[in-house]
Each structure stands twice: as C-alpha cells, then as structure tokens.
Amino acid sequence: MCAQIRSWAAPGGGRVRGVVRAGLLGAIGCLALWSPGVSAAQPAGRGGYREPPEAIRAVLDTPPTPGVSISPDGSRMLLLHYRGLPPVSDLSAPMLRLGGSRLNPLTSGPHGPRRISGFTLRDVAGKAAPMPVDLGGEANLSGPSWSVDGRFAMFTNTLDQGVELWVLDVASGKAKRLTDATVHGASGATARWMPDQKHLLVKFVPQGRGAMPERPRRPDGPVVQDATGETAPVRTYQDLLSDTYDEALFDWIMPSQLAVVNVETGARRNIGTPGIYAEASASPSGEYLLVGRVERPYSFLVPWSLFPQVWEVWSASDGRVVKEVARMPLRDTIPTQGVQTGPRGLEWVEVRPATLLWAEALDGGDPRKKVEHRDRVMTWAAPFAGEPSEFLRVQHRFSGVTWMEEAPGAPTSRAMLSEYERERRWTRTYLIEADRAMSRTGETRVVFDRSINDRYNDPGSPITDRTAQGFTVIKVHDDGVFLAGAGATPEGERPFLDRLSLADLSTTRLWRCEGEQYESVIDVVEGRAEPGLLVLTSHETKTSPPNVRVRTLSGGGLSEARAVTDFKDPTPQIRSIKKEIVTYARADGVPLSATVFTPPGYTGGERLPLIIWAYPNEVSDASTAGQVEGSEHRFTRIAGSSHLFLLLAGYAVMDDASMPVVGDPETVNNTFVTQIVANAQAAIDKAAAMGVADPRRVGVAGHSYGAFMTANLLAHAPAGMFRAGVARSGAYNRTLTPFGFQSERRSFWEARDVYVNMSPFTFADKIKTPVLLIHGQIDNNSGTFPIQSERLFQAIKGQGGTARLVVLPYESHGYAARESVGHVLAEMVEWFDRYVKPIGAPEAGAP
Question: Do 537 and 551 meet the contact criterion of CB atoms below 8 Å apart?
C-alpha cells in the first residue's frame, strides 16, 4: 500500500493526488503525495504552458551572473555559480505542509530547489589563478559559511534522498564530504560553527527514525477546537497542522539529533537526545549550549514557532541540563502588532564567556497600553545561580542590541541598543556603556533618532566583524565605528562610508559615491596581505554589471579602487533601455517619485503605452512620502517574472511609483482608496507631461499588496484612467483577514466599514476595466490564499466584467519555475497588447 500524505480538492471539484518515486530514506516504496489540484500526468492548464515573445525569452534564459562570498579576512572569495530558473518538475517534489513550514520528506529539509550549482575559489589580491571547487558531480548547494580565520568554508549539498555536509579547505582548494546524507534541515539552521572554529554543531536525522507514518484508513475522530473566552486575534497563517495525522507527521519529521562534528576528521559526537529544536547555539566560551525545545500541545491556529517551548542551558560536553531558563506556553493570544509575555529573543552576549540576554514585556505585550516602559532587558551569567538581573528598561519596544569589539583591558562593555516607537513609526538607537558585571546601566547616549520612513536622514548601519569565537560584533577602530548607507537624496542614492566617533558621536565622511556610477560598501576588513584596512565595494554603471572592488583605508581617506572581479554584461541587447528618476506631487501637494523606463531604442518624440507598477505604503509624515529610492546610474537587470520585461514589448514602465497613504497610523486606511487614486492620477499626469506616455493608454499592475492596490484602482478610479490591469497573488476580500493586514492595526469588528470599503471584492460590480488575475496554486503568504483570486474572478464574471484567472501549479507567493515565469510574462504581454497598446479603441471581450 502507498502511504497517503494528503489529498486536496481540485478547484473544479473532485480529489486529486500525485505520485512520488520510491525511496523515502529507503523505507517507502510508494508514496501518494498531496498535489495542488494537478497531478504530474495531468495537463497543466487549458492549452499548456505558454512562452513570451522571443526578445523576452532571450533575456529570461540568460545564465545568471555569479554571486560572491568573501572570507572574513578579505583575502579569498568564493564565486557562487547559479542555475537558471528551475523546471516545474523540481517544484513538484514531495511536500509536507506542517505547522507553517513546507518540507520535503525525502530530504528532511525545506521544500524547493536550491539554486547554487558550484563554487570557484579566488584570491582577492589576484595573485593566484581561479580554482574551481571539485565536488565530484552535479551539486545542489547552500551558501557557504566561513570560519573566522578563513581557513574553511562549510556548506551543504542536497541530494534526492537527503542533505550532506561538506567543508572546503581554502589553502588546498579541496572540498570533502563530512557526513552522509543525514543532515536535518526541517527545523532551521542545519549547522553552525562552534567557538573553537574547529568543530560544527550539526542537526542530524535521528538514527532509527523509521518510516513516515501512514494515514489511518479510519480517522480517530473529528477535529475539535475550543474558544474559552480569552481574546486571541490570530493572523491568517497558512500550512498549519489540521488533524492528528498531521501531528504524527510533525512528530516524525521535525525531531533532530544534535551533534558536534570535527571539520578535519569528520568525527561525530552526539549531544543530548533527539528533540524538536527551535534553537541550538554555543556560548562564546564553548562550555554551554542554549537550546530551545518545542513541546506539546500543538496548535491548529499558529505555526510551530509559536508552539510551547522550553529553553535550557546544556553542558556542551555531555548534553546535561544545567539550567532551565524559560518556559514559553502556546502563544496564540498575542495582541495585534504585540509581543508575547515572558522572556523572548534569548541569545548569548557576544562579548562575554557565557551570559544570556533577553527582553520581557512590561505592558502585557499589548502595544495599546499606556505604560512608562514597554520592555525590560534581562541578563543571566554562568553558572546561572540565583535569579536573572534586570539590565535596563526601554520606553518603547526593544528591537535589538549589538555589542562592540572590546579592546584588551577595556573598562566597560559597549553596545548599540535600539527601540521602536509604534505610535510614530520611529526608531531610536542608544550607545550603552555597562560595567563588566552587567548588573547596572552605565552612561546612555542617543546615537540615532529618526522616522523609519525617512530615507534621506538614514545614518547607515554599523560595519560588523566577527570575534575569534565567530560571534558578530560592531567593528571598532581607533575608538570609532564605520557606518555604511545607501545615501538616499532627492537626486538618487549616493552610497557612503562614515566614521562615528564613540567619544563625542560626531561623524566624519570618509567616502561617498560620486559621478555616473553606483558603488556601495560591502565590508571593511583588516588586511592580511597589505597594511591598513581594506574596504570592499560593489561597483556598477549603466553599462557594466556589479563587480567587486577593493580600496585601502589609511590616513582618513580611501585609495584608488582596484578591480577584483570582471563580470561581463550578460544581456547587452537591453543596454539601450533608459531610466530616469522623476519627482512630482499629487493634487494635495504630497511629494511623490518614480523611476520611468523607456524601451530599447526609444529616442523620444513618440507617446508610448504606459504601465504603472506600484506598491502602497503607509507613512505618518507627508514630507517623507515621495523620497527618492534607487539610482539612475545602476545597471539594469531584468530577471524572473519582472514587470520590466514589458519594456521589451514596447511599453514605457513607471516603476515603483509612489503610493503613500498618509495619516495617523491608527486610522490611516480610512482614506486608502481616495489616496491611491490621487497617487495614480499624479503618476499618469507626470508621465504624460514628460512626453513619454499616452495618457489614454495606461495599464496598472502590482504583486501582493500591489495587486490589492490594482484591483482597488480598477474599482474606484474614474472611467478611462486605466485600460487594463494585472493583479498577481493578491488579497481582495479583507473580511478574510479580520485581525489586521499590512499595517492596519484594527480588527474587522473595530473598523467594519474600512474592511468593507477597502475590499475590491465588495465592488466587483464596479470593475469593468479588464483585469488579469494571476495566483500561485499553493500560495503560503499570510492572507493571500488562492481563493482570494478565485472569488474575485467569479464575482467579476458574475457581474458581467472582463477578467482572466491564471492559477500556476506548484507555485507559491512568488513564481519560481521556468515554465510558470514564462507563462506569466506571456499572459501579461498579451493582456496589455490586447487592451492597452491599441491606439484606437481596445479590442472588446475577454480572450
């Protein structure tokens, strides 16, 4: 008999199943697999997959440019060679949808194809020839993780039947397999470096796990859930457990065995017993492990990350429980935009041998409560005797702390600690100085204080380094830290590198990108082969793709750049695409911006059909609504299901057109529809005033919340504003997301009219402009169930509108398979060609 995983109803009714090959860890000969409405032998839709025009196909199928991973000391790099888009058959691999995760039962890891096929080792100084890494055959790799000294790079290789652990010896350029295909990846990170940088902490599939459970022929009873009077606003999570059989599958695939593996010999030492481990990390001293272990009872309402957990400190030598730190109950009653009560975010303090740090809510986790302090930060040092200590309290919600490098004999530990003020969408970062006992707060100074929407005043992010034990800390040099940022300005982004003095918090500009180029900082590292600090950057222009450069920082300035890589333009046929960042204002004066692209060879003088692509965002301050993002000097790349492919079909594209919804965060959506219509009108007026767009031939499109925006515009914009729309993977009935969506803080029952009036489904009778709806058949994004597109299509069709619904087999919220991506692009081009491109009246009737 075949073991049934799950069968689902096809959209048209009936039950459908797929079949997988034999060999589930050698234990299953035949497996009936859940299939998203289409079996492997079934046609993929009426007429099969379609292809876009040849000009689009040529760019779509261009091999990707390699990625780059640089060693911590900046001396070596690995080029990561990527595959193109995978075939849809890769997406149809066996899948278990359990507790919010999608897992492959054959590999005990995440479902979905990896994209890295190989590595090439290179010397940053350019003194040695590139060396391809021999893996003995076809590979399916994870990104590499370097040891601190740069001697080794660890990675995994996913086979059909499991996951192997490999390590690259950088000196020799030789890679070797450390384990067989028994590495476990279902519950998060598969392997981490231990503090000695000679061993790895690895999760393995438990020995003797046995075969996957079969679904009982007779259910053991109905599925029952209770509401006991406690307020429990739950988000619209997907892929949750649904019955006792799912619980049995969860108990089979999720447990792992922790072990320490020697990177040179492969010797393995098990630690503790198998369990479902949400977290397992070593203390900087290497003496202890912090372990978060999932326990029953499970829930059908929330993902497994919110199931009950026990957090313990173990002895790293034998797995003995040294101290129970926290018990977290089932967290299914967290307030909207709130946090759990009790300890959260437990982690090791990077600059102490063995000290834990975590946050605790002082407002019951409810952001609507008025309190003097929302959170307190706690610490607990080994040997974990007595009680934890309160380190400090923060006025708003604690959002993280990063410790700084310590000089030998330094009298204090320093860190940057941040909090988030929900009411104003505001972030504040402090410089914290504490004594070595970490029992009280030292001097506290405000370093950064700004709106999260204010890109122009973003000071950048601190450059980090790794301690000898592998922990991430802020890099300190001459009692200062380096800040790297995008440098947004009204004329476009100008990346920069600053130095922040820790003595007086003044900043000094060390470097800024100038001229017709775009160059941004990757890292600042201590030079091994040459004196001083090395600044690694990514450099690109309109005609040259991103390449790595290196400069030397000395005497307060940077030397001339030296090229490290020389990647060529993979798609020269699109190099004559032009783009221009434009600013404008809507009728009420709110500033807006967008990037206007014109097709290859366009020289002006002709008004083109225009496609507006956008995504709404909520802002509190109108002055930040239209701040410019991006740069005209960046290399244009088009890949995947990008809307920019429409340029190759003769359209002008107004990309990332500002769609701000301005107002009080508590009530901003009261005017959502009015504001997006005003934003759209301003965008059309600007493109028309530029002489680029024909205002009578405009289409609108978006993905996810942008699709929701698109449908709303087609329902509420004045007749004739748009000729057609494309809405991909959206949510259109907000009553199906009743406990908030996007940044909406109120529930449906608190703002009934807002939910109804923002739902395009409510106004399906008003959608007379043709709309193409596209959705992945197994979309797992919160709120964007495929039924959202299905029901909107049925409503428009029932009201006599013009619409087309395309549902992509095996695809989730984004689209991954080559067949799916090609089909999406073909559909979009044909839809806009039919309804937007004609100079006269567009063709009537649905295709």
Answer: yes
Mean pLDDT over 176-184 rounds to 96
Residue 530's pLDDT is: 61
Distance CA 15, CA 9 (A): 5
Q: Is the pLDDT of residue 47 over 80?
A: no
Helices (runs of H) and strands (runs of E) counted in the chain: 8, 53
Nearest in space to 809 (alpha carbons), one of 17, 41, 45, 12: 45
**Residue 685 pLDDT greater than 60, yes or no:** yes
Q: Are strands 375-381 and 413-421 parallel, antiparallel or unpaired?
A: unpaired
Report the DSSP beta bridge partners of residue 416: 402, 431
CA distance 751 to 126: 62
For 458-475, what is each residue's pLDDT tens digit?
999 999 999 999 999 999
Q: Give the CB-side neighbour count of residue 710, counting CA atoms within 13 A.
A: 32
Which pLDDT value is given to residue 790?
97
Q: Is the distance from CB of 433 to CB of 443 less than 8 angstroms?
A: yes
| pLDDT tens string 137-153 | 889 999 999 999 999 99
Q: Is 741 exposed, middle or buried (0-12, 13-18, 19+ CB in 10 A)?
A: buried
The β-bridge relationship of strands 152-159 and 162-169 is antiparallel
Type of residue at 116: I
Nearest Cα neighbor of 647 from 696, 600, 690 is: 600
Rounded distance between C-alpha atoms, residue 652 and residue 671, angstroms = 29
Which residues touch 370 (CB under 8 Å, ≥6 apart)? Answer: none
User: Which residues touch 703 (CB under 8 Å, ≥6 apart)?
Assistant: 615, 728, 729, 730
C-beta atoms surrounding 231 within 10 Å: 8
- Cα gap 520→65, rounded to integer Å: 18
CA distance 342 to 327: 8
Residue 272, sorted as left (phi over 0), alpha (psi -120 to 50) or beta, turns out to be left
Q: Give yes or no: 81 in active site.
A: no
**Best CA proximity match to 570, nearest among 124, 66, 53:** 66
* Residue 674, φ and ψ in degrees, nearest 5: -60, -40
Question: Which among 169, 544, 782, 813 is annotated as catalytic?
Answer: 813
For residue 181, the model assigns a pLDDT of: 94
- Residues 704, 729, 759, 789: which is the catalytic one? 704
Query: pLDDT class for 840, splitting at 50, 70, 90?
Result: confident
Q: What is the pLDDT of residue 458?
A: 95
In this structure, the chain runs to a length of 847
Instruction: State yes or no: is 813 an active-site residue.
Output: yes
* Burial 626-653, CB ≥16 within 10 A → b, else e: bbbbbbbbbbbbbbebbbbbbbbbbbbb
**Spatial strand order in the sheet of 67-70:** 67-70, 76-82, 116-123, 131-132
Confidence class for position 844, pLDDT limits 50, 70, 90: low
Instruction: Look up tokens 């509401």; give the residue.
Output: 227
- pLDDT over 80 (residue 278): yes
Neighbours of 229 (CB within 10 A): 6
| pLDDT tens-digit series, residues 711-720 | 999 999 999 9
Angle CA(513)–CA(514)–CA(515) in degrees, nearest 5?
135
pTM of the model: 0.90
Task: State yes or no: pLDDT of 511 exceeds 60.
Answer: yes
The residue annotated as part of the active site, out of 239, 375, 498, 779, is 779
Write the DSSP symbol of residue 93: S
Place of tokens 């004609």: 838
pLDDT for position 12: 32
pLDDT at 128: 86
CA distance 21 to 2: 11
